């Protein structure tokens, strides 16, 4: 399992991530905004409240929505390879 060690919210529903193995990069989450549990993200200020859960190392928001670090890692790696 990949561990997220740093997250920075960016404009346009993107995040910059750094993982424990040193891999880092940006991921766009714009395609999720407004859908189901991601409805709260329609407010960019709410989206910017992203943090890292210290136990699971997932990205999380105050309403309990979280994203798997392994899937995010794959997105970062794929983006770098493109």
Short description:
It contains 2 helices and 6 strands; from the N terminus they run E-E-E-H-E-E-E-H. The chain is α+β, with helices and mostly antiparallel strands. The chain has one domain (4-81): NE0471 N-terminal domain-like (2-Layer Sandwich), CATH 3.30.2020.10.
**Helix-strand topology string:** EEEHEEEH
Give the CATH architecture.
Answer: 2-Layer Sandwich
> Counting H and I runs of at least 4 residues, what is the number of helices?
2
Q: What is the spatial order of strands in the main beta sheet?
A: 1-2-3
Number of strands: 6
Q: Which fold does the CATH topology refer to?
A: NE0471 N-terminal domain-like
Helix % is 10-25%
CATH class: Alpha Beta
Question: What can you tell me about this protein's structure?
Answer:
It is globular, with a radius of gyration of 12 Å. With 82 residues, it is an alpha+beta fold. Strand 5 (59-60) and strand 6 (66-67) form a beta hairpin. The protein has helices at 44-47, 69-81; strands spanning 4-10, 14-19, 24-28, 51-52, 59-60, 66-67. The protein has a single domain, classed as NE0471-like N-terminal domain (NE0471 N-terminal domain-like).
Labels describing this entry:
82 residues, alpha+beta, NE0471 N-terminal domain-like, 3-stranded antiparallel β-sheet, 21% helix, 29% strand
